[in-house]
Amino acid sequence: MEGKAETLVMKPNDDELLSKQRMKQEAAATAEKEDVQVQCNDTITEQEMNKIELMRALVKKQDPSSKDIDDYDLRRFLLARDLDIEKSTSMFLKYLKWRQSFVPKGSISVCEIPNEIAQNKMFMQGVDKEGCPIAVVFGSRHIQNKLGGLDEFKRFIVFALDKLCARTSPGREKFTIIGDLQGFGYCNSDVRAYLTALSIVQDCYPERLGKVLLVNVPYLFCTLWKILYPFIDNKTKKKIMFVENKRLTATLLQDIDENQLPETYGGKLQLVPIQDA
């Protein structure tokens, strides 16, 4: 066998040359997918830029301490308010005030959220076909945090969202969430925490959420969903998708390549805890 293999290497036939060519093409495609999260494909339009400059002037006038404001940051708030400059400016100024008071050091550290981290409920790995980072959240692992209270849960949400945002790039700013509700029960129905997370995402991280894929959804979750639904804005509602159990892997593969999908859903990536990602 070894001699035969040596002969094939020394005198490759046409099939082998085609095979090697395909391997090179596949390797190049894989490398491109791995680098996709740092590429930009969403440019700011002239109309948006005009509104951004007007909004920037208003923000600086009302908050002189704000400087080096990113165009894409301003555009996200503009898009969240349908390009209404006054509403967008008001929203952004509230965000700046909240950020300065809630995250005075600029970031949340792991030592500030020990009880939330201990629940081991959120992971991050891979990117979808649009290059957006993917997070997986296991709903059955969330239990009301009585030790750290709601404040620690808020810090955890900001910690996780900042981690996801750090994986994005200008023009490619959204992320995808897989919400796994297998085993979800009454003890996980922490309405106050979920409404808090929803508020932070919608008010402080507008236009960051690309898609939410809810999988392994039990009937019990329908009751909680009816409570949460009225608090979800219309734009966010359109981004939430309930995945049928019998089509779970096939549905996820529509948005995520197999080599970027977690093993637990039929892919090839291992899940990495959010704090280690």
Automatic annotation (TrEMBL):
Spans traversing the lipid bilayer: none
Pfam families associated with the record: CRAL_TRIO
SMART domains: CRAL_TRIO_N, SEC14
Residue ranges of every copy of the CRAL-TRIO domain listed in the record: 126-273
Highest taxon in the source lineage: Eukaryota
Renumbered residue ranges of the record's region Disordered: 1-34
InterPro entries listed in its UniProt record: CRAL-TRIO_dom (IPR001251), CRAL-TRIO_dom_sf (IPR036865), CRAL/TRIO_N_dom (IPR011074), CRAL/TRIO_N_dom_sf (IPR036273)
Protein name: CRAL-TRIO domain-containing protein
Protein's organism: Anisodus tanguticus
Lineage: Eukaryota, Viridiplantae, Streptophyta, Embryophyta, Tracheophyta
